[in-house]
Amino acid sequence: MTKQPKAIVIGSGVAGLAAACRLAKAGCQVQVFEGNSSYGGKLAEFKHEGFRFGKGPSLFTLPQVLDELFIHCGENPRDYYTYRQLPLITKYFFPDGKQINAYADLEAFQEELVEKLGEQADRLKRFFQHIEEVYNCVSPIFLENPLREFYKSMQGSLWKALKMIFKIDAFRTLDQSNSQWFQHEKSKLIFNRFATYNGSNPYKAPATLNVIPHLEHNLGAYYVDGGIRALAEALYALAKKLKVDFQFNTLVESIQVQDGKAKGVFVAGQLISAEKVFCNMDINLAYPRLLPNQKAPKIYLKQEKSSSALVFYWSMNTQVKQIDVHNILFSKDYKGEFEYLQNGDISDDPTVYIYVSAKVEPKDAPEGKENWFVMINVPHDSGQNWAHLVAKARLDVKAKVNAMLHIHVDELIEHEEVLDPLRIEKETCSIGGALYGNSSNSLFSAFLRHPHQNKHIKNLSFVGGSVHPGGGIPLCLLSAKIACDRI
User: Fold this and answer.
1) Nearest to residue 398, comparing CAs of 380, 377, 376?
2) N or C: which end of the chain has fewer CB within 10 A?
3) Structural contact between residues 453 and 462, judged by C-beta atoms closer than 8 angstroms
């Protein structure tokens, strides 16, 4: 009988769980080491006196990517998780009182932009066709395959390479592109904000990031029944069914590298051997912590880091009727916000995202009450006084919510929990709390993410949001698929 090859996975975020499932399906004996007490990484949640809060992302896109993993492993995805499309994706509030509803129905959303902001219907139609074309160009060669396949596609004549770059709209910033597509400043802001989905600045990041609104508006954004945590629970259940072994509250001290090959990991001073090692830790922390004696790839580690988040979890003693499940309260100076972030600071007037799962799942809060996930974009940690920044931001956020929703939020909050960049780094091993590893704030930064392998270390693979193809649930899942398919 052939001996099962041993594979070790460091970390049980989305990509780590997905990699563990694929490796087990391929016939490996898989062991996962997780420093926290549970699995899921950024898909964590907590409960307090009848209120349930998801700590991380809330929208689910590209569900077919996760479905494919379960089907590949011989399971029916619907036996593990379900999701649905809500009629309204996001409700946008502007300082002048204007409100825009981003309906799930694309025609209804376009009509909203025409009627309330005076956009041209034919131009809106061409925009959504354009971002679909960008996605269809980028996805097969970049999102679904190793970086080497993208580089290979760019080889040949200079004209072929330039044609590809023009086609994916990489020579303009997202703001420059949206300024040409939309007549009204508010429309531009709505689509500029998608850069923040991977921690980037729309005034610096390439217009290629318009693939993100394509995912949300052309392909669909969904609510996961039971909250986004249900996806981590589904992946964990699949892994357990495939006989994956999990070791929680267990820190990997280092990766053993000998003769240019990963041989296993050290845990509590003991070497645990394996034929394959998969690392789901942010590469910016993985090299100094787990590979201190190996040459680090400075081209990746020195890149600008993505933004982080400051989240206030508010247990509200009432239901606020004027907001929906997903809400954005824009600042008066959106561009100025990013100048603050660039300088390691937080604007006095930040754009605020409010997510209330109790709007769609009443059991997430006691009867007549709501669970508010209130988030603003903040810089990653670089030594700031976070106690001071959090205290000031709390006052600014409350003032903004009061002014734009016409409530007195201090009278409504029963309990508060806070998640800042320091805590994000501690809980998720994301350097400085940078949610997506490196940012995409330059022309080719999206194409300079760390590949799944270090060419100098065999049998070692990297997965997760800090490597190719990037951050977010679908891309983390794709990173695991690409890395596992390669071996």
Assistant:
1) 376
2) N
3) yes
Which letter does DSSP use for residue 5 in this model? P
Q: Residues 185-230: pLDDT tens digits?
A: 999 999 999 999 989 999 999 999 999 999 999 999 999 999 999 9
Residue 208 lies in a domain: yes
Element (H, E) at 68: helix 63-72
Residue 158 scores a pLDDT above 50: no
Does 469 map to a domain? no
- The answer to whether residue 182 sits within a structural domain is yes
- CA distances from residue 323 to 27, 116, 147, 152 in whole angstroms, order as listed: 49, 18, 42, 48
Output the six-digit token pair for 302: 């020195």
Q: Are 50 and 365 in contact (CB under 8 A)?
A: yes
Name the β-bridge partners of 328. 92, 353
Cα gap 11→286, rounded to integer Å: 11
Q: What is the mean pLDDT of residues 255-262?
A: 97
CA atoms within 13 A of residue 300's CA, in its CB half-sphere: 23
How far apart are the C-alpha atoms of 420 and 294, rounded to whole Å? 31
How is residue 348 written in tokens? 């006095």
Q: Which two structure tokens, joined as six digits, stand for 206?
A: 């390439």
Amino acid at 463: V
Domain count of the chain? 1
3-state per-residue secondary structure call for 181-218: HCCCHHHHHHHHHHHHHHCCCCCCCEHHHHHHHHHHHH
Crossing angle for the helix pair 63-72 and 14-25, nearest 10 degrees? 30
Residue found by looking up tokens 């409504």 in the block: 412
Strand 370-378 to strand 352-355: parallel, antiparallel, or no bridges (unpaired)? antiparallel
Residue 129, C-beta contacts closer than 8 angstroms, at least 6 positions apart = none
Our measurement of the distance from residue 369's CA atom to the centroid of its chain's CA atoms, rounded to an integer in Å, reads 28
**For the chain, what percentages of helix, strand and coil (3-state, to nearest 5) are there?**
40, 20, 35
Q: How many C-beta atoms surround the C-beta of residue 76 within 10 A?
A: 9
Structure tokens belonging to residue 246? 């999990």
| Residue 404 within a domain | no
Residue 186, domain extent = 123-195+202-219
Site of tokens 């998720």: 428
Place of tokens 């929680």: 248
Q: What is the pLDDT of residues 373-387, one digit of tens each?
A: 999 999 999 999 999
